Amino acid sequence: MAKLAIHGGEPVRKEPFPLYRDIGEEELRELKEVIKSKQLFRYGGTKVKKFEEEFAKFYGVRHAVACTSGTAAIHIALGALELDAGSEVITSPITDMGTIIPILAQNCIPIFADLDPYTYTLDPSDIEKRISEKTKAIIAVHLFGYPCDMDPIMEIAEKHGLYVIEDCCQAYLAEYKGKRVGTIGHINAFSLQMSKHMTTGDGGITVTNDDELGRKARLFMDKGWVRGVPSFARTYIMFGFNYRMNELTGAVALAQLKKLPKVVEKRRVLGEKLTKLLEDLENSEYLYLPKSTKERKHSFWLYPMRVNTSKLKVTNIDFAKALSAEGIPASAGYIGKPLYTVPYLMEKRVYGKTHCPFECPYYGKKIEYKPGLCPTTEKILAEIITIPINEHFTDKDVEDIAEAVRKVTEYYAKQQP
Ligand SMILES: Cc1ncc(COP(=O)(O)O)c(C=O)c1O
């Protein structure tokens, strides 16, 4: 058996992987037009407006509101719902903190539901168990680019009168039963942060087919300011923030949108190829791999896999370390711990010493964030590793990843008594 690189053996891979993004002439052309126009502000310029129109057309939705980040896009979606302080919002314990911050910022209470052990998305039956008279919305996170099981989530929402926000930050062009994610929930959000399928460095966009939510989303993005109505004085009609995208960002976003289909298609082909190359290790139950099905199409923001620690004598941290030594940039866990164990949440430290919104009279319930709340989530995080996948990878890059994963897996499989 080949000696692992972590034990002094030859690494499978010595060259770095092509992890750069496609940013070049197309972005420059759009940017040049903005600079020449001397107008960097979206109201007065053309690029952000055009980006919103083109994104809405591309996704086949009625409204798209561009903003400064994915966190802002989720905040705008939630703000548009105008929930009462103390409302509960059910979401995933494995996601970026940008899913949770808007809930707290609206003085609402994040309620974490457990996940499916193979797709890492919300388990609909567990959502139903966590619903109370305070529940008003669900934020469904399409983690790593894999779609949540949206039919039962929408059915639960309908039955209990809840809104659904899709967090599509990692899931551009992922599909559920032939529909793109971001077109199923009531109001949905995307991120344009640097690592995402399309990027402006930072940025975001909120989409909806609901005219009233679209109107409120636009107001919330812009301090509640009514624009375009002739008046001698400013009119603010709703609480909101300044989450306006500027023209420079809008210019880059326009160019990036054109590249999006190819980026996703390439990642999809590479991701499915990697799964195929490792299929026998899944059949032996050493690893659990991501894969598209007829109904749920992956878009591979990252390549996640679970190491079956009851069959392989290794932790996910040591597995990731061994893979990294083989020259494969792997991480253990994505986030290391479920978000309900983030210290400031467990200590209810959001607004100074007040313990708001958790002890706000409008909530009137007791909430405790502590380990053990979502057992399947905790098992996932103890076993998952993630490997970057990028549209510039070649077949050889994927083959190297597969070879290294195989080498490490086979080594730890042999360590069994
Ligand atoms: C699932 C998810 N939700 C929310 C966010 C927040 O997006 P941003 O970093 O653009 O604020 C991200 C991005 O990091 C994300 O991956």
Number of helices: 13
Note the beta-strand portion.
5-15%
Q: Return the structural class.
A: alpha/beta
Poorly predicted runs are none
Largest sheet: 7 strands, mixed
Any idea what the radius of gyration is? 22 Å
- Strand/helix succession: HHEHEHEHEHEEEEEHHHEEEHEHHEH
User: What would the CATH topology of the domain at 25-258 be?
Assistant: Aspartate Aminotransferase, domain 2
CATH superfamily of the domain at 25-258: Type I PLP-dependent aspartate aminotransferase-like (Major domain)
Helix content: 25-40%
Task: Kindly report how far apart the N and C termini lie.
Answer: 17 Å
Shape: globular
Give the secondary structure arrangement, pairings included:
Elements: H1 25-37, H2 47-59, E1 63-67, H3 70-81, E2 88-91, H4 101-105, E3 109-112, H5 124-130, E4 135-141, H6 150-160, E5 163-167, E6 175-176, E7 179-180, E8 187-191, E9 204-208, H7 211-221, H8 247-277, H9 279-283, E10 287-288, E11 296-297, E12 302-307, H10 316-325, E13 331-332, H11 343-346, H12 375-383, E14 384-388, H13 395-414
Parallel strand pairs: 2-3, 2-4, 4-5, 5-8
Antiparallel strand pairs: 1-9, 6-7, 6-11, 8-9, 10-12, 12-14, 13-14
Helix pairs in contact: 1-8, 2-8, 3-7, 8-13
The site of pyridoxal-5'-phosphate has 14 residues, from helix 3.
